[in-house]
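In this supplementary section we document a worked example of the pipeline. Step one takes a protein sequence of length 161 as its only input; no multiple sequence alignment statistics are reported here. Step two produces a three-dimensional model, which step three serialises into structure tokens for compact storage. The input and output of this example are shown verbatim.
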Amino acid sequence: MLKSKRKQMGKDISKLVVGEKINLTEKIEDKDLMLYLGLTNDANPLYLQHDYAAETIYGQPIVPPIMLTGIVTAAISKHLPGPGAHIINQQLHFPKPVYHYAIVDFTLEITKLDYSTNQVTIQVNAIDEEGERVMSGELVVNAPQKPVTEKSNQKEDTNGE
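The serialised model returned by step three reads:
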């Protein structure tokens, strides 16, 4: 288990706003593909072998859709809402394949906040360098929360002063 300096929590639901968004651009490099495929033990020749992929409807190797999903989940974990967020549901569509070396622009936007369940709904869209949609969908995320013991200690500190 990794132990390190405690990282700051992401935004709790009270600090989020419907319409808040982040944009990020990723270039899909060979090193990233090889690392992903190695870690998952995914040897689909459609993702790796140029001669195999050339005989398919794609004509060349494509990026595994789950790798694009990983870029989105990392953005949620790092930025919106940030560290401590946890995805509980996702509906994602991949209308067009992404090819090796593609540059993809991702937009994540908060579309709903449910304070009673601490859930944030995030719309995601990804566009390739040709301006075509390669991914779209929606994720439901539990926003970061401090542990109950920390919350009660904070209340005691403010009430006791």
